[in-house]
Amino acid sequence: PWGWRRLVSSGAPWLALGFGVGRPSGRSPVPSCCASLLLPPLLPGRSSSSLSLPWGGWGPSAAWGTGAGGWSPLVSDRYQWLEVDLGERTKITAVATQGRYGSSDWLTSYLLMFSDTGHNWKQYRQEDSIGSFPGNSNADSVVQHKLQQPAIARFLRLIPLDWNPSGRIGLRLETYGCPYTSDVVSFDGGSSSGLVFRSPVSRRTSRDVVTLKFKTLRNSGTLLQAEGRDGLGFSLELERGKLLLLKQASEPLRLASLGSLLDDQHWHHVAVERRSSHLNLTVDKHTERVQIPAEFSHWDVEQLSVGAVQGFSSQKSLVSKRNFQGCLENLLYNGHNLIELAKNNDHQGNVTFSCAEPVSVAVTFTGPQSFLQLPGATASSSGGVSLGFQFRTWNKAGLLLTFDLPQQGGVVWLYLSEARLWLQIHKGGRALLELTAGPAQASPLFPVAIENTSHECRNPFNVFQGCMRLLTLDNQNMDLIMVQQKQLGNYSNLQIDMCGIIDRCSPSRCEHGGRCSQSWTVFHCNCSDSGYIGATCHSSVYEQSCEAYKHNGNTSGHFYIDVDGSGPIKPQLVYCNMTGNKQTPSLLFLPSLLSVSCDYHLHNLHFDYSSREEQLSVAISQSEHCEQELSYHCRKSRLLNTPGTGSPFSWWRGGPGSGRIQTYWGGAHPGSQQCSCGLQGDCVDPQHYCNCDADRMETEDSGLLTHKESLPVRSLVLGDVQRPGSEAAYRVGPLRCRGDKNFWNAAFFDKETSYLHFPTFHGELSADISFLFKTTASSGVFLENLGIKDFIRIELSSSTQVLFSFDVGNGPLEVLMESRDPLNDNRWHRVRAERNVKEASLRLDDLPVATQEAPTDGHFHLQLNSQLFIGGTASRQKGFRGCIRSLQLNGVTLDLEERAKITPGVQPGCPGHCSSYGSLCQNQGRCVERTNGFHCDCSLSAYTGVFCQTEVSVSFKPGSSVSYTFKEPYELSRNSSALPSSIYSDMTLRGENVSLSFRTNQSPALLLYVSSYYREHLALLINKNGEQDARLLFEGVGLKSLLNVISIHLSISLIFRLKIGQQKVQMKSVTKHSTMLHSIIQKITFSLIVFVSPESGDLDPDLARLASLGFAGCLSVVQFNTISPLKAALLHPDTSPVVISGPLVQSNCGSAGSANPYAEENTHHLSGKRWTSQLGLRDITIIVVLCVIAVVIFVIVTGLAITARFLYRRKDTYRNQEVKGVKQDDSPDFPFNNQADSQNLSTENPKEYFI
């Protein structure tokens, strides 16, 4: 895709070529000490042409507005130019323009070009992007532009772009700067070319700096080598136009790559700075920091080689084996001028102390209208024509040239397609020959037929955009300067004597590891697998905390969180526990034992965490609370040596980095040198502040570390474990952090004139802003920050529209997002706005993103200088009334609450979250407001969990049951004031709602029995109905003959939901793909209900016989009105009126158990013996043998069990055949079978039912 390429082809008369250019950006002030007038009046120069009018020189008159003078070309078009020769290379810091005196002639915009030789011009760009300068608005005013980066050149050329439409091109020009001096050396690339400098004394320095400038036409070569002892060193090498920093040792290693297109014969600045632990490599204006390999920590420079390949001792090979060919300028090493040193002393190598530059005229094809037409050569005796050129481009396709073959007839096409070079010869509408070259060797292809029905000059290929140079025709160089002067050939929309190619991927504008690719005009970022999205991979696709995931409706599980959003810290995979006791999700980090060492009878244990240091630090700082358990189980092993009569025997390190020494234990305060029992005053020995310090036989000190500045635990040092009989065990639990201070950070603006102000927002190249708002107002400004000309603003422009607008110097740009629903509904809405060098985007809630492309040739940097206003503007107009929450700028959360505490008209915090998040509470869960957020109250639901979405299930065995008893009527009436709970809230209802789900293979079975004190009852049971079928029966007083019998298949997984109300019984049978509704209209009235045990003596005899069989299976989410007996039995057995009989095991009833993977803790045992963290070879062998024996035993037992089961089934089948004739038939009059199958339950494929 890049690099000069030399091409040679044969052909004849005319050439037609085409291509295009684009621009990147940067700004910086010009020092006032270098601003002298460089161009005195009447200094002659060159121009494309000039009118024969009264002439006063290039420059304005001394008074800038008096006297005649100025330049005006004969023809006013964009091919005109004015050139100034400053006589020698000069530092140019500013230019000023004025219109032609006493006329209507002035420029409104222009380009500046610089050159050392009067050829190979380089366009000056502001911000690496802006190519044009704004000019004048009349003939008299002076417009001066300070160059953000001074230009060093001898020649300056000004090219008009636009001028006064009522006049002509007219100009008076002034330049400012100061003289420039330098030392130059030139290398011819030969084997004897180069300089070698040796350090007379090897001295160690904390900082080494090498700076230089270079220019070259060759894209590879060795610039510099620095060698120290043992053959270790660094080298700077050009490779394919990029500068590589290499570590030279036994194997060369690339440390960094910077720059691009460095073989353009223009000066490039390079600096290498070595510090104790890192290197800084700078190419032009871009710097990359590189970590120094460990072996270079005590390395010193002993020899510098410049411009030539020098063999390192113990070195295999270099990336580039070529010497450098080109010029170096101002080569400095630690402030010493090495070129001046080489001049004054004998130097090695064939070098000259001047820079002789070859003249190479390039031409740039900028777009679809660009072409170059040259006269062809006369045919040679052989009938062939040869031509050659070099080209470079970013595009993968485009027509390079075409010409006719007059003698043979036909047309030659040379073009790029899919980054390969193709040559076709056409004649009579057919392709006679087709060749291709590129990544593979050139090879002929089969001819292809084409249709040519038009005689117009048409380009059937893509337009070429790129540069060409060294054009030759029959081995004769084509003089492109004559083309520029219109003395040879013809052209249109070309840039002659310059190559205007730009590398938009160096440095890459793609963030967070996004891969950059480009064409001639644009670049593209591939963000796949980066965890970020957007035109420049700027915005994270992940939430910043578990709290944010919870409010998206997520339950406990593994999630990627990005603690700083669009910041540099990478996402991390963590476990979010959404069901904590504090109603806020918790974030867990597991410690793992990294290393163990023993030193002077001290055991040093170091811990590592799965997250990186910066991820862990930010997660802790933005959490509301963090804790980590630290326990010490001891037997004659003292801990902190309390009271403080001496140094502690053991301690730990905690906090950022490697941590700070902490001499307190879990449950105590930092710096107290106490354990939890010392703080609470209940130690086993009151004279000590830790249980273990009493030196008793066996005890423990444990507790939670909650001081966030001391977390996490990084290492433990355990000391008193070497005495005879002493033993100790430690436990470091997972780090748990809960809450998100940033997520609920909010402010309420109660007036349009109220606002908060913060320091200036710095988002020069990339800016992302996100926040949530809720309001009842129809408009208002959320955020505004102003500059001299630039600004950025986000506002609610109407009740359904959010507007994002900004200006970076190209004029205002707006992105509008409209919602179908009103936004002033007092519900939370999320806004995310982003602006980068490619586009601006705006996202509202979950609506599709709206985007607006940035100008390709425009300003990049957003320059603001005023305060940042939140909730209003500097003019105090159009302020916002409502709440703004979780405001983040480039991943950094602004503390609205702290600023609101000291700002009139703004209140910290913002209540009323259930209006937005209440729908997350499921299954009759009730949303309860909190100061920061909300939680779901599941007390009236049969479910539990953060959103009342987790079923409460119990696995029953035949002898298990749960009884729930209401208080008797006379107790309720006598003590009616003592009804604090909702348990008794349904005592006066005239209709009941019953629901449950079950999972079993047993039939018959009694699932549920409800009775009243008036001998009314309701029973739900399963009756045997064939091998696989069963009947689901509902029996109650007055209901037996009224309810239909529903047949179910135990081998088919169905979900039954039953609702029994005052007027009807409704049941839904639900499968994965369909839902069927069965409704039976009845009048059912129950008075006070009691849920009693089936063992009650008042049971119906038939139900009693069925109850004696027991129930084996699983019942889940059992609910009677607002009462959940299983939930009460499992979660509140001590405070609820429940009686549990037999074993009761909690189950998930149809879903696999989700064991918490973070339940593990780091627990290890220490004793007076020598302790090691690794198993010996003998131990590993024993474990392997035991595992093999266990597998063999398991296989044998499994085989015996299968055989026994088969024999048992054969016996059972014979028994069933004997009694089949006397078995009673199922009938509605006899609701269940006495013969139970509960002893033959199959657990291989249980099914689940919801009623």
From TrEMBL:
Record keywords: Disulfide bond, EGF-like domain, Membrane, Repeat, Signal, Transmembrane, Transmembrane helix
Domain EGF-like residues, every copy: 501-538, 911-949
Organism for this UniProt entry: Amphiprion percula (Orange clownfish)
Membrane-spanning intervals of the chain: 1180-1208
Keyword Cell inner membrane among UniProt keywords: no
Compartments it resides in: Membrane
Domain of life: Eukaryota
Comp. bias intervals (Polar residues): 1232-1244
Cysteines engaged in disulfide bonds, as pairs: C883-C910
Protein known as: Contactin associated protein like 3
InterPro entries: ConA-like_dom_sf (IPR013320), EGF (IPR000742), FA58C (IPR000421), Fibrinogen-like_C (IPR036056), Fibrinogen_a/b/g_C_dom (IPR002181), Galactose-bd-like_sf (IPR008979), Laminin_G (IPR001791), Neurexin-related_CASP (IPR050372)
SMART domains the UniProt entry points to: EGF, FA58C, LamG
Listed GO CC annotations: membrane
Region (Disordered): 1219-1251
PROSITE patterns hit by this protein: EGF_3 (PS50026), FA58C_1 (PS01285), FA58C_3 (PS50022), FIBRINOGEN_C_2 (PS51406), LAM_G_DOMAIN (PS50025)
Membrane topology: Single-pass type I membrane protein
Family membership: Belongs to the neurexin family.
Domain named Fibrinogen C-terminal: residues: 537-582
CDD domains in the cross-refs: EGF_CA (cd00054), FA58C (cd00057), LamG (cd00110)
Domain Laminin G, first and last residues per copy: 184-355, 745-910
Record domain F5/8 type C: where: 65-178
Signal peptide: 1-18
Keyword Cell division appears in the UniProt entry: no
